[in-house]
Amino acid sequence: MLLSLVVATDFLSAGVHAQTTVIPSDSFSSVSRFEQFWNYLYPLGSDHNGSGRMVGSSSDHSHINPAGGTLTLIATPTSNPVPPTSTANPNPAIHYASGVVHAKSQITVTSTQSWTIQGEFSAPTAKGTWPAFWLTAVQGWPPEADIGEWKGTNNNWYNTFNTSAVVRSDLVAWPADLSFHSLKAVLTAESNGKDVRIDFYMDNALRATQFGAGFVGKAMWLIVNLQMEGSSGSPGPSGTTTYKARNVLVTHT
Prior knowledge:
Layout: H1 2-13, E1 20-23, H2 31-37, E2 38-40, E3 52-54, E4 64-67, E5 70-77, E6 96-98, E7 100-103, E8 115-122, E9 129-137, E10 144-149, E11 155-161, E12 167-173, E13 181-189, E14 196-202, E15 205-212, E16 220-228, E17 241-252
Parallel strand pairs: 3-6
Antiparallel strand pairs: 1-17, 2-7, 4-5, 5-6, 5-17, 7-16, 8-13, 8-17, 9-10, 9-16, 10-11, 11-12, 13-14, 14-15
């Protein structure tokens, strides 16, 4: 017993912190497992800033399909949508039915709690496809940090928005063959207790480091979405587009 107490004391005095899993890597193994950790659609509904209207529910997996360890988001051209334009600014015309999910758990970096968000992705890069894996503010905006964003080119965009005009972007080449590659972001509070350092990785190599001003204490949503057109250009594909995610793991220490 004495030995156990000494080991525990040394463990704590060394500053080692336990890791807590918030979203396990098997959350896409089945619909029931998915629904433990994820919600259908955007936090504010079906529309955002592109031409895709998100469709999905516990009874409709035609565009949001978690199965066998992989989340597949599917965009298909649509005609005569009601309403015909997005309900979100800048109200683009709706040209696709597509899919998006967001995590039930919110992510808040504090001075004592850092976060690691990671996964593997097969992302389309054709003109008019706009998939993403990103964090955005629960209240107001910013903060926003884009861990994965593909804007119709063979690049992944790492972005941190401090304001709409103060943005840091780092582009890293991404293959167009729809192979899976891993992405990871490690979010840690700076010593000033206000700002967050974000280290972005691709295939386990550090690719960019950015800083979010005032991000400490700000709750954020984690979103996986297949938006269309908008910033990725138009016209988009005339056929079906798929975006896949697997092994998404969210932890904090």
